[in-house]
């Protein structure tokens, strides 16, 4: 009697997935990491992707590393009609679930310190996604035009244009602590 080996079967499929700009490690797959082009003088750029958990235990994205002065996970929340970006410590992916990060609000990766080197369409850059269980997954972000239909969204990007936000005044380190303390009164 032949013993089925599902893991070996999945491993055999991996090269095909990689060709489609997807990456995986263990039970976690990262699909189509992309960033949105930025204005020439932008200080920050946003990155998005889908994460699929094919396993039976929860995992979480806890960090993104890339060659920028600072990279953070951010969440966008509306408070009194004003969009704010707050640091996000982790993005949970339940077993069997797919989490989608996409333009238009919500979680995103914030690449900070672009200063004079904007994201240009078709540019690619490497990054490492760090997961609590699956460990590190090396990926490549590809820069896409603002407002492009990547199959993820048809929202109005203008609502969430990072360039128009108050990133300049926002010292992210300080904000992180305020946000954790939940001190809305001070904001
Ligand atoms: Cu942000």
UniProtKB/TrEMBL annotation:
Signal peptide span = 1-19
InterPro entries, per database record: LpqE-like (IPR007410), Lxx211020-like (IPR058248), PCuAC_sf (IPR036182)
Pfam families named among the record's database cross-references: PCuAC
Which segments carry the region annotation Disordered? 148-187
Q: Which residues form a coiled coil?
A: none
Quote the biased-composition stretches of kind Basic and acidic residues, using this chain's numbering: 151-187
The alphabetical list of record keywords is:
Signal
Question: What name appears for this protein in its UniProt entry?
Answer: Copper(I)-binding protein
Q: Which organism is it from?
A: Limimaricola pyoseonensis
- Taxonomic path: Bacteria, Pseudomonadati, Pseudomonadota, Alphaproteobacteria, Rhodobacterales
């Amino acid at each position: 009697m032949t013993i089925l080996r599902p893991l070996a079967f999945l491993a055999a499929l991996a090269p095909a997935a990689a060709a489609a700009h997807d990456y995986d490690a263990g039970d976690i797959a990262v699909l189509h990491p992309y960033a949105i082009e930025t204005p020439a003088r932008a200080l920050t750029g946003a990155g998005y992707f889908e994460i699929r958990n094919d396993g039976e235990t929860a995992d979480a994205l806890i960090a993104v590393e890339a060659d920028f002065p600072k990279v953070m996970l951010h969440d966008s929340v509306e408070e009194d009609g004003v969009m704010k970006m707050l640091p996000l410590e982790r993005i949970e992916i339940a077993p069997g679930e797919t989490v989608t990060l996409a333009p238009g609000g919500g979680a995103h990766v914030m690449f900070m310190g672009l200063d004079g080197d904007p994201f240009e369409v078709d540019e690619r850059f490497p990054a490492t996604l760090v997961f609590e269980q699956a460990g590190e997954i090396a990926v490549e972000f590809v820069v896409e035009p603002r407002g492009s239909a990547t199959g993820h969204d048809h929202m109005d990007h203008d609502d969430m244009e990072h360039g128009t936000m108050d990133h300049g005044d926002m010292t992210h380190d300080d904000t992180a602590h305020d946000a954790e303390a939940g001190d809305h009164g001070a904001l």
